[in-house]
Each structure stands twice: as structure tokens, then as C-alpha cells.
Amino acid sequence: MKVIVAEHAGVCYGVERALKLAVEASGAEGPVHTLGPLIHNPQAVEGLRGKGVEVASRLDEVSEGTVVIRSHGVDPAIIEAARAKGLEVVDATCPFVRAAHTCASDLVAGAYSVIIVGEAEHPEVEGILAHAGGKALIVQSAADLPAKLPSRRIGVVVQTTQSLARLEEVVSALLGRVTELRVCNTICSATAQRQAAAADLAARVDVIVVVGGHNSGNTNRLAEICRSVNPNVRHVETADELRAEWFADAETVGVTAGASTPDEQIRGVIAAIEALDGDGA
Question: Which structural domains are found in the chain, ordered by start?
């Protein structure tokens, strides 16, 4: 059984930067908390906890020390409130997410009605919504667009981990319904690279394993894209979830991973698949 790894897989710059900033913050005096999980990878979050970086679900749970803003970004009012409490703030917001924030703010300033293409309850989308003044319409697909749009002058911004196909679908549905349409393609380049590489690999192998947090939007999107070209897709967080029967008749196995998946997790899954082959899988 041959194991092939996608050309682009695993941690992106934004995640790597966030982890680096959190580890550096762990050496600060006083308690250190991330505001929500730093990234959507439970194993990486647990690793940070081992370094003394705890997770706070709300700002009112942090009374002193340092608070690290997660890679998904937050409402700017939260950062202001943290500083007002005397907390040291380390902003680990991904630069691509920050670009989406800027785009949302610019659209509002330009008097556009904002539509966000993304998942309504995802923390990144909540941050983009805050930068849009809290009044944007959030859709996951063209089917979510209302019969009556908020105006004939629409600005679109997209969650950084969405697929280009999803954005194009929404934009296409809007074109004939508005007089002016401004689109900010804020899908990050790392996401686009991983999605293209995953689709290419999935089409060439018998089974493809997607490695990353089950709570990770970008990893779930990779699995979704792989399923569109190959029914034999397995999404796992760690090697412990692998099952020998998945690979019983496989000659080739592909491995890809979300942008929030550290290299050691990917290596662990690859090693476990190769060990299954040695056991006769």
C-alpha cells in the first residue's frame, strides 16, 4: 500500500504565527489565557495548556495577566474591554482574517449592504460581522439568500476558509438582482492551495485520510471537497481513530490535513497507516 501526501497540507502561516505568539506569551508574568481555543485543533490546544496557557470562554473569566486573541479574530470591542481591565493583550488574529475585517469595515463605510459568505456561528464570522457593524447578512450558499435583499447595492466578504466554488455560487446568484456588487475574495491562499491539492489527490487514490480537528471549519471543508471526487474519505484527528478495515482493499492512500493541523499529527497518522500495511491491511 502506497501512502501519498498532498502537495499542500497542514499548518498555515496564520496558525503557525498564532501558536508561536501563544508559546511566547506563556513566559509572561501572571496567568495567560486564550480567549476561546487558539485554533480549532484540540491536541494543539491541550499542548498549550501543558505550557500554562489556559482557555477562557469569555473575557469576564480573566481578571489579570495576559489574554491571547485567537487566530479567528474577535469583535474589536472585546480587545478594548480587555485593555480597559488592565490585561496585556497579544493579538494572534490571522493576517488573512484581519484583511476580511478591513474589507467588511470598508464596505460599510462605502454604504454597501454587507453579505458574509460563511458559517453563522463560527468565531471568525462573528468577528467579521462585528467589523461590519453587526448588521450583515450571513449565508452559507445561494439558497440562503432571502427573497428580498437588504438593498440593491451589495458588498460581499467571505470567511477565509470557505471554498471558491461556494463564493462563486453566491456571487452568481446576486449578479442579476443588484445594481452594484462589490466582492472581496478574502479566501486565504493557504486554504485555496490545500483545497486544490486535496481534490487532485483524492481523485488519484483509493482512500483519502483528512487529518485535523473535527471542530475545524477548514478541515471539514477539505473532507467535503474530497468526498465530491472520492467516496472513500476518512476524517480523523489522531492516529488512534484509524481502522484497519478502511484500507483492506486499498493500493494507494492519500493523506491531507487542515491548516490548523501540526506536522507531528500528520506524521503520526502516516506512520500508523504504514504500520497497518505492515500488519497486512
Answer: 2-10+190-278 (3.40.1010.20), 13-93 (3.40.50.11270), 96-187 (3.40.1010.20)
**Among 29, 121, 124, 180, which one carries the catalytic annotation?**
124
What are the pLDDT digits (tens) for 5-48? 999 999 999 999 999 999 999 988 899 999 999 998 999 999 99
pLDDT band at 266; cut points 50, 70, 90: very high
Whether 16 sits among the annotated catalytic residues: the reply is no
Beta-carbon contacts of 7 under 8 Å, excluding residues fewer than 6 positions away, are 193, 197, 200, 201
pLDDT at 217: 85
| Banded model confidence at residue 279, pLDDT cuts 50, 70, 90 | low
